[in-house]
Amino acid sequence: MRGIVWGIGAFFAVMVLGIAVIMGLFFYYTKDLPRPERFTEASFSQPTKIYDRTGKVLLYEIYEKEKRDPVLLSETPKYLQQAVIATEDRRFYHHFGIDPTSIARAALANIRLRGPAQGGSTITQQLVRTSFLTREKTFERKIKEVVITLELERRYSKDEILGFYLNQVPLGANTYGVGAASQLYFRKKPGELTLAESATLAALIQAPSYYSPYGDRKDKLLARKNYVLDRMAQEEYIATNEAEDAKKAEIQFLSQEPSESIKAPHFIMYILDQLFDRYGEDFVRTNGLNVYTSLDWNLQKAAETAVQTYVERNKAYNAHNAALVAITPQTGEILAMVGSKSWDGDSYPKGCVPGKNCLFDPKVNIVNAYPGRQPGSAFKPFVYATAFERGAANDQTIIIDELTNFGVWGGKEYIPQNYDGKFRGPVTIRVALAQSLNIPAVKTLLEYAGIQESIETAKKMGVTTLNRDLSFYGPALVLGGGEVRLLDITSAYGVFATEGRRVPPVSIIRIKDSEGDTIEENKKIPATVLSPDVARLITDILSDNDARAPIFGARSPLYIEGYRVAAKTGTTQDYKDAWAIGYTDKIVAGAWVGNNNNDYMERGPGVELAAPIWNYFMRNALPYLSSPAQ
User: Fold this and answer.
1) How far apart are the C-alpha atoms of 267 and 551, rounded to whole Å?
2) What's the pTM value of the predicted model, to 2 decimals?
3) Which CATH number fits domain 334-626: 3.40.50.720, 3.40.50.300, 3.30.70.1140, 3.40.710.10?
4) Which residues are part of the catalytic machinery?
């Protein structure tokens, strides 16, 4: 009996102690809880600086310069409030700040997906996190979040909390709160927003930088906007037909304000995407990182000049945009990146709706845009390399260049033509590749290389976008029937330059914290993905100026006097894309010419439109890279 009494006493003692600990934590973490009027005060922060590879050229400085325009909850449309609640916290008015149901649902989803795919945070918790706490994932921070959340719910009404949240939530471009965001994106007061625009702002909350309407992912933002509308209908805030009508409504975004003091803007946006993904946007903006990138500022200026010089000339071919990227093949380091001819938002063509019908869209980075563009004959080296790697053919293998019906593919007979409409009879593979003959290329694909095998070769070398069924590509694969990104295919050509070794593209060499300690450093190691003999043979063919001269001429833009340069052009059959990619052992560069909206060019082949850009850049880059200082 005495043991039972002792056990009950111990139980109550532990329970009392636990309550005391909880109460202690509660009072400790809530004694200095800020008042609502302090919610808009920015805490001390240090800007993150992004440099070129030397650490001497400051490319961009990102800091916590917040744009705010506080509004009363009564000044925001019900649609906007409902869109946020339906998407971020559907039980907002029915929980006490912590929602066990959402936490359990998120936990089950994360277990099912084997990773942290979903969160269970309420609107109040999100407000606490952005207003009072850091992003560090520690037990202490989580305790603070829970305790302050409960205290916030005790002190303020649900409408007050929702009002605080709508004035605090980050919505991209240094903008906080729906008041500033509605002005930034639509030049409207919140009360003037339509249902579709309200759903769009709610869609930005999850990842404002990722879903920015001014980047490469506007289509993903609009898809998430539709998801928000579906959630509103499911929660019965709107009728299903209202949701469907709002999905069809056209969203007119204003041009983004030009960024302040930004060099190599498309490259910087590419860097920021990586930094935000790894560390979170708030951390990057406030923690004083020093980011040393791979960019060579001298080569970047040469690349920008090359693009801007020739894109004006190319307008005669109805080609209004161009892009260029350059990489060190031995290390994968990106030396220059020009995502389009300009970055200035004021340069949108008259009547253009960004992301929809623009011949030229300055904010889209063609170098890295997914899923890419069709490469035309620039894909041929991967097919010939596959045939060589399999031992099925070599550069002296004879193939008959003649009119050939390759049977029915995609519902119609496939009878390709050479660029000049002529046939040459028996030719060696060296001549076929150097002169970019189409019929021998298709025969090599089907008889010596294989469609699946050629795709696998391209993937091993760095092409990431060829993920459709084989039936989609067919024999047109060798003539560029699959979409690729300029960054990918340029990096893949680097494998030829390194005699078979691959290093994925590298843009960040080193990151130091505000104290000068290195927190991240590139240590990527090359991997052999292609036989050295095959890589050398492809390089030998692509640098054989005598072999390509009958088609391109002895002094074409693919020829650079005084240097042994391997190069290949590409032109899509419908003249929507023109390419030129070439390399030495020190640098590989790729150029693209075309229109953002896939409009046709006026029969402009890669050698006439893209190769001059590539040639101009390489003629500046090669002496520079060969100088004693380099």
Assistant:
1) 36
2) 0.70
3) 3.40.710.10
4) 88, 377
